[in-house]
Amino acid sequence: MESLSGKVALITGAGSGIGRGTALHAAAEGMHVVVADIKNSDGVAEEIKAAGGSATAAAIDTTDDGAWGLLVDQITRDHGGVDLLVNNAGIVQPVDNAASTSNEDWARIVGVNQTGYFYGMRAVIPGMIERGGGAIVNVASVAGLVGMLNVFTYAATKGAVIAMSKQAAIEYAGSKIRINVICPGIIETPILGDITPELKAYCESQTPLARLGQPLDIGAMAVHLARPESSFITGQVIAIDGGWTAQ
Ligand SMILES: NC(=O)c1ccc[n+]([C@@H]2O[C@H](COP(=O)([O-])OP(=O)(O)OC[C@H]3O[C@@H](n4cnc5c(N)ncnc54)[C@H](O)[C@@H]3O)[C@@H](O)[C@H]2O)c1
Fold first, then answer.
1. How many independent structural domains does the chain possess?
2. How many CB atoms lie within 10 A of CB 234?
3. How far is the CA of 191 from the centre of ligand 1 (A)?
4. Residue 217 is part of a domain; what is its CATH number?
C-alpha cells in the first residue's frame, strides 16, 4: 500500500474511544495527527509522541464555528493543510424519545452530532480544493440506518450525517474530495457508560460475529479511506458492525 507518511489527519473526539483509536492508527501509519477534542486532547497527543509518532493537541468545542476557522488556519500555517478530516466527536443521551426529549437536549445533540460535522466540513473543504483534494470521513452510526430504542435525537443526527455526506460527496467529487461515512455498530468505548455484563452478553448474542467492536475496527477503515487505494470510493456508507445490520 502507498504510504500516508507526512499527510495530515484532523480527528475530532480523538481524546477517547473511536477517535483515540483512529488517531493512534493514523499516527502509526506515519500521518501527523491533530488530536482535537473538548477534553483530553493533550493526553492522546502525548501518547502518540511517546510511541514515536507526530501529533499536536487541539482543545476545541466542535460546536464553535469560530474555533474551527482558527484551528484549520493554524494547521495550514504549520503543516500545509488537512489531508484527512475525521468528524467523530459525538454525544448520546441515555433515554431519548420522540414524546419526551426536551428542546434543550434536542439542540445539544444536534449541535455536536450534526452541526459540528457541518462546521468541520465547511472549515476544511476550501483548503482541500486549493490543495487538489482530500478525504473526509464522517462517523455516523447504525442508528442512522435502522431503528433502535431510546435514541431518537441521536438517530436523527446520524441519519442527517449520512444525507449531508452524500450531498457533499457529489458536490465536491470534481475537486477530488472524497467524503464517506462509517456507521459503527456497538463499539467498546466510554460512550457505552457502565455496560453490565448481561447487556454486553446480549449485544454479543445479537451480533453475527459474536463480539463487540473495538476502536481500531473503525479507525483502520477511517485511515484506509484516506489512502490513494481508496481513490474511487466516495459517497459511501460503510457499516462496521459485526454483521448486525445484515440480519
Ligand atoms: N461506541 C459505540 O458503540 C458507537 C456506535 C456508533 C457510533 N458511535 C459514534 O462514534 C463517535 C465516537 O464515539 P465513542 O464511542 O468513541 O465515544 P467517546 O465518548 O469515547 O468519545 C467521544 C469523544 O467526543 C468528545 N466530544 C464530545 N463533544 C464534543 C465537542 N462538542 N467538541 C469536541 N469534542 C467533543 C468527547 O470529549 C469524547 O472524547 C460518536 O460520533 C458516536 O456517536 C459510537
1. 1
2. 21
3. 6
4. 3.40.50.720
